[in-house]
Amino acid sequence: LSTTFLAACSLNSRLYLFGSPDIFPVPFRRESYWIPCPGTVGHLNGPGGSQARERMAVAVRYYDLNFSRFPPAVLADEVDRLRVLADQMLRTPQTDDSRRDLRMTAGWLSALSGNLAFVLAFGLADNTAALIHLGTAARLGTAVGDDDLVCWALGAQAMTASSQGRHAEALELARAAYENAHSPLRRAQVLAWAELRAHAGMDNQHQAARAMAAAQDQMAADPHGERTGRFGFDLAELQLHLAEASLALGQHAQARAHAVASSARTRTGRPGWAAATLVLSRGEAARGNHSDAAALAHHVLDTIPPQSLRQTSRVRLRDLDSD
Description:
The protein is mainly alpha-helical. It has 14 helices and 2 strands, in the order H-E-E-H-H-H-H-H-H-H-H-H-H-H-H-H. It has helices at residues 3-6, 50-65, 72-90, 96-119, 126-144, 147-163, 167-179, 184-201, 205-221, 235-248, 252-264, 271-286, 290-303, 311-322; strands at 14-15, 35-36. It is globular and about 65 Å long. The relative contact order is 0.07.
């Protein structure tokens, strides 16, 4: 690492991985993640050493499990700082095993960055950045042999492509993701998150019905059940994807049932709750219940702070207005 970077260490020779606590307004125990910063780059416990790699991996896991708790812009800034540190660490001498571990961590950080670029409430132009980060994640996953990372990154690219109306491309990406899915839970996620969305976008009623059924079967077949976090998948998210696909296919009663089921499994005020409630609102509008639809949308706006309202929810609100 450069002397400029090392000079960023605090006066007591400790470097915080994530910047100073006074600019991070989230309930994160930073003191658990600072790294001792001795004056030599090659020190085992310095920024290029094993302790730094281990604590960075712990941080990625923390962001995975707590992704929905924080405003996207705040989390994006923190993840970006960590990605810069990973890049700097990769420029230092590493053993082959250490470099592989670090590249894997960098890959999951890129996956986080890509998803954050997608959900940030700054406009659909961020989808370009999302695809760049997700492509980097998939390439790093391939390089280190992490099929789970490749699967997730390709599935996220498929979702992003569908949001831009590129459904045929999304379907190809979804099928590539499925080839790297090695558990029933991951297969359920790819089917619902990526393939189903593409079929619904192209109004492929039969293929969409098959994807819906297969996703539910795979979810039920996983011996470990749900997995929490951004990189996980649960029944609430499954029901949300079923609801949105049903709505796109004109199946309003099914959309309502799935949206209600998703909302019931999600804590009020969380992004998943907002998404399910807005899908329910659109379903009510499609059924002619305009006052109920408006009440549900206002409930979301009254509950979610503007800085925490994701771009995906803003799109749903615009779609509701068009409905």
